[in-house]
Amino acid sequence: MPSMKPSLDCRTPALSVAFAVLLGCIPALAGEIDVLHASVAPTEKVGSDVPLHLTVMNRAAEADSLLRFRCPFANFSERVTVDKGGEGPPSKRPIQAIALKASGETALTPEGMHVMLLQTRQPLVAGERFTCSASFRKAGSVEVPVEVRAAK
Length: 152
Hints:
Blueprint: H1 17-23, E1 33-40, E2 50-58, E3 64-70, E4 74-83, E5 91-94, E6 98-100, E7 104-108, E8 114-120, E9 129-136, E10 140-148
Parallel strand pairs: 1-10
Antiparallel strand pairs: 1-2, 2-7, 2-8, 3-6, 3-9, 4-5, 4-8, 9-10
Pfam families: PCuAC
Protein name: Copper chaperone PCu(A)C
Organism: Methylobacterium indicum
């Protein structure tokens, strides 16, 4: 005997946007975040720590935050900021998240807020490409192509 319960799936005509997001028919804030120009420098050693260069384009009307970055060639990642105040050379300090402004670009560079990829699992050769994953507070997870690129 067939079930008399109504079922909701992605083809239900009157499906609201909120239910569509909950059911996974459309990702939350789909297409609101793009990660551009992601790259790391080559390294010959296993176990190196490398800064990740990238730009995040947030087209949403609300600010967001980068919470995590995972790459197959690194054991860990850490979000850091560079403190330039005080005496002595600048120092890196871990932070919980990297704030991303609404409706704009945020460049992550080793001179300011950025992601460090820690303990590389292999040497990184110029020209190699990897697919990594960035997790954002509102936009969710985004696949990111990362290129190993020699400094210009």
